[in-house]
Each structure stands twice: as C-alpha cells, then as structure tokens.
Amino acid sequence: MGNIIKGASTSITESDPFTYSLSSCRPNRFKPLQAKLYEAIMKDDSTSIKALLAHQPVNEPLIVWDNSACRRTLSIQDQSILPIHLAAKHRREKSLRCLIESGADPKLRDNRGYTALHLLLLHWPNIYLTETDILTRFQRNLGITQSNAEECLRILCEKEVQTDPEMDSNYKHSSLHLALRSGASRAISILIENGANINDRDEFGKTALHTAAEHLNKEVTETLITCGANINCTLPIYGKTALQLAVCTASSKAGTVLAADIDCIHLLLMNGAKVNTQDCDGRAAIHDACLGGRKEIIDLLVDYHADVNILTRQGQSPLFLFLQHRTNLRCTSLLNKLLNLSYPLKLTNNQGDLPTGLLLQEFQIQKDFLVRLSNNMLSLQDICKITVRRIYGEKNKQRLKKQLPVTVWNSLYNYQDYSQLW
User: Fold this and answer.
1) Residue-wise DSSP of 341-357
2) Contacts 24+ apart (CB under 8 A), 220-225
3) Which parts of the chain have pLDDT scores under 50?
4) What CA–CA distance (Å, rounded) separates 321 from 289?
5) Which contiguous run of DSSP H or E holds residue 81?
6) Which CATH class is domain 1-162?
7) What pLDDT digit, counting tens, does each position of 346-398 carry?
8) Which spans in 15-112 are helix H?
9) Taking Cα atoms as reference points, which of 183, 180, 305, 300 lies closest to residue 247?
10) Where in the chain is CATH 1.25.40.20?
11) Is Repeat included in the keywords of this UniProt record (predicted)?
C-alpha cells in the first residue's frame, strides 16, 4: 500500500510536494519587487530575500492577484499575505529565519486572525508512511517536508514567539488545540517544551488531553501524560474526565461496530485515571461502558476496580444501563458477570422504571427471573464473595489463587450461570 496523505496539494514538485510550481504558475500581476520577494521566499533563497528587503518593508503584505493562470492554486487568502506568513504556511525554513532576523513580526495577524504560528500548524503536513524498507523519492520528499515543518516551528519558538496565541475568531483554539485538530501530533511536544500551557482549555472547556482521549489517539495521549497533563481534569459543564470521554467514544455504536482500539483507555488507567469519577449527571465510565456493552471495556474497567454498583443521579446502576439494549441482553456471558458482581441488585431507577430492554416481549422470561432475583436476600457467604471479587477484580485473581486454599478460591471465582435459570 502507498502513503496516505491528508490535505496534500494536487500539484507536487520535488522540492516541496505540498505547494504549486512557481514556474508553471507565476503571479504576473505583482508589483515587480513583490513578485521577486514572493518567488525568493518560495525558493527558500535567503540571500535574495535579504537583498530585496533593502527596498521592501518586511512587514508589508504582498499583493497576489488571482489571475486566470493561477486561479486553481491561489486561494482568496493568498491574495494578500505577509512575507512571514507565506514562509510559515509553506514551511520555508531558511526564508522564515531570514525574515525574522530582518525584523518580521511573528505576532502580526492576517484578516482571519491567524499568526505565523497558526498558519504553520494549519498547514502541517499529515503524513503516514507504510512500513517499508524501500522509500521512493516521493516518500523522501514527504519526510523532508515534515522535517521542514518541525524546524520552522522551532525557529518560531526560538524567537520567543508566544506559543499560546488564540485565533481571533469564533473558535478560541490555543496552539496546542490547533495542532491536535490539524493532526500535527509531532508538533505537540515542541510546543509544550517551549511554554505552551498543557492544561489550557478550548471554547468547550476541553484540554488537549480531553480531545486526544476522545479521539482515542494513544500517541498524543501518551505524549501529553508524559509532559504532565492533568489526567483527572474534568470538563466545567459536563464534569467528564479524559477517561470518560475515551470510554464514551470506544463504547459508542460506531466504536463497537469498528472495534475501536481501547489502548488509549488502558493507558489512562495505567497512569492514574480515577475510574469511579462521576460527571454532573452522576455517570461514571462504567455506566457508559455498560450502555455500549463492549465486553473488553467493561472487563478492563472492572480490573481497575470500577464500582459496578455506583448509581447515577437518576438512580441508574451500570446493570440498569446494560439492560437498556436488546443486543446487550443477548450477551449472556457479560450479563452473568455483571449479575455476579452486583449487590444489591438494583433493576429500577429512582422513578421505579425498569430498563427498556427488559420490557421487550422477547425478554419476558428474563425480566420475570431478574425481578425475582432482585427481591431475594443473598446469603452472607454470597455477599462476601461479591465483595472480594469487587476488591481484587479479575486482574488479581491468579495472585489470590496462590494464597488461598483451592476450595476457597474455586468458591470465590465460580460464577453462577444465571442463563440456565431462565
């Protein structure tokens, strides 16, 4: 398979596969001096740039006319662009350094409120190379483009550019959030090293870790955790943590159908994410996992001591949410596990309503059985078994096996198969 390139230009040259060729589309309605400066920047010719800046103000916009020859390659934003913005947008490392040394102001914004840093991140090359020992010339060019982008970012950071400038628009993204949304994962560590606020929030109150976890981006999540992100930070409105957002995504219908990877969830738990944190509605990660019915997620949360009996503000237990869906009721092995961990067995919410799945005619037998079971008083021995399972979980049961008599261990982890009783 070849490379997958997101946001690549349709015209590709050997020097930069993400920009058009000046020889095939020369802006012929520039002022003569500006045309030369434009071309020198695009060619990364610092010697010519220095000579031209003796006659052209470095912070004066270049006016590019959208003539018929260039209509396909020059957007409306390119019609008036500052030299430093041009260099940053097209990742011209030598040009960017030369312009800054000549007095170009990285803090200047264009008509959309973007600084040079914003434009660099917005046009970051998203490159995913396949595992191969043979790199084509095109692949090598893509690698060079990625390196140029990183070097340009370092140049801007070296010049003490503010790494957290908000875009002057309806979306107040910091540089870190913008890097995430642009797929510039390799830029994140550079930004943090140079002072970007790792726990800064966007207009929705999300930190970068919230966003990375919600998209199940393990690589970025790991980088952010390593750099000191607050792993248990909650959203101001909904109160959800990064762990809850990751579980919601992986447990959604799309996440279930596509068998979304759960490594990000595991990573958060391994690094101290609080598994029983409840949001503003009283929902914990185990509630969303049970509603989605993905066994591997429920098992993982239980291994990290998720409370299977924790209630939402409406009095819904994880089992209650599990029983909402027809597909979950058909998963008898998972239902058995939840029943063997639940005490007291609470089938209704605060209003006394049963889960909608149990009200379906096809599950009448299961409903009658579970209602009877919820009304039964468990023996002290059964309560102790459930308590031990909850405390130690599946993760530690082999360690217990070495410490307990065989008969005791077998009694603890010999789950009752309730499906045979209905």
Assistant:
1) H-SS---S-TT-PPPGG
2) 220/180, 220/185, 220/188, 221/264, 221/267, 221/268, 222/267, 223/185, 223/188, 223/189, 224/188, 224/198, 225/267, 225/268, 225/271
3) 1-29, 66-78, 129-131, 133-134, 168
4) 9
5) strand 80-81
6) mainly alpha
7) 999 999 999 999 999 999 999 999 999 999 888 888 888 888 887 887 778 88
8) 32-42, 46-52, 83-89, 93-101
9) 300
10) 1-162
11) yes
What is the distance between the alpha carbons of residues 271 and 33, in angstroms, rounded to a whole number? 57
Spatial distance between the Cα atoms of 379 and 293, rounded to a whole number of angstroms: 29
Quote the CA–CA distance of 312 and 286 in Å, as a whole number. Answer: 11
Give the pLDDT score at 7.
36
Whole-angstrom Cα distance, residue 201 to residue 166? 11
- Residues 380-386: contacts with CB under 8 Å, at least 24 apart: 382/343, 383/343, 385/411, 385/412, 386/340, 386/341, 386/342, 386/343
Are 343 and 378 contacting, i.e. CB atoms less than 8 angstroms apart? yes
Which residues touch 228 (CB under 8 Å, ≥6 apart)? 198
pTM, full prediction: 0.81
CA-derived radius of gyration, the chain: 29
